Amino acid sequence: MTSLPFALLMESLGIAPNASLHGYAIDSMLEMLHWFMLILFVGWGSFYFYTLWRFQKKRSPKANYVGTTSHLPTKLEGGVIVLEVVLLMAFAAPIWAARVDQFPSGPDVTHLSAVGQQFLWNFHYTGPDGKYGHRDVSLVSSSNQLGLDRSDPDAADDLTAIGEMHLPVNKPCIVDVMSKDVIHDFCIPNMRVAQDAIPGSIIPLWFIPVKTGTYEIVCAQLCGNNHSLMKGTLVVEDEASYKKWFDETAKLSGAKIVEGKPVSDATTTDSAAGVAANR
């Protein structure tokens, strides 16, 4: 599925275009809810103005203390309740269950952490081993915001980045959301995902990006005076571009192993290749 067949209201409301696989289901549900609420608004509004006209003093100079004897209003209210239950159980609940109970697995999954702090986002990717390296608060510095212990073997191939998150298109990712200080909210509107970042808690979310491009990451929870400046960037790209970014950024962030080789060896090989190309 690449587009919504019926998204007139969503487009007119200026909602950020969807770029994730599950987002289409969320947008469809929101579209139905907006149309449902519009129908209710027109219906009840029309009924309200009808009663103003029907029971004005000129038409009903004498009060009627019996009231209506029709059961139509009760039936209409019952129909509204039934429709709301259907929307909740048939659409909202299954979508939510998929988000919290059906996490992807396998070699194609990109696994990373998003760590909020006033007022920026830190990202920590596992390397090919799929394991996070140890983090120690005593190692936190301006150049090592997460306190990653590079002496830990599991951290040898890890990547850390500030403010910029990259993902390969059409592949699932799991983001472990956490915070270093106060409560934040990791939100990517175009991916239809948002999750509170709570100190002391690690809360995962997942999604599959289906459109390449650059998207905004924001904090959706008031977290201090510069809350509005707490933004990041998500870049969704093809597999080759993602791998190139990962390897280059891993070297810059202090990884000791890139592409299965020690960084010194990989750097020497790259330099030799560059010299050969210039000859």
Describe this protein's structure.
The chain is α+β, with helices and mostly antiparallel strands. The chain folds into two domains: 8-61 and 68-101, Helix Hairpins (Orthogonal Bundle), CATH 1.10.287.90; 110-278, Immunoglobulin-like, CATH 2.60.40.420. Helix content is 35%, strand content 23%. It has five helices and twelve strands. It has helices spanning 8-12, 23-54, 72-101, 239-252, 263-278, and strands spanning 110-117, 120-125, 159-162, 164-168, 173-179, 184-188, 193-197, 203-207, 213-219, 231-237, 257-258, 261-262. It has a five-stranded mixed sheet. The protein has a five-stranded mixed sheet with strand order 4-10-9-6-7, covered by helices on one side. Helix 2 (23-54) runs antiparallel to helix 3. The chain is elongated, with a radius of gyration of 27 Å. Residues 1-5 and 265-279 have low confidence and may be disordered.
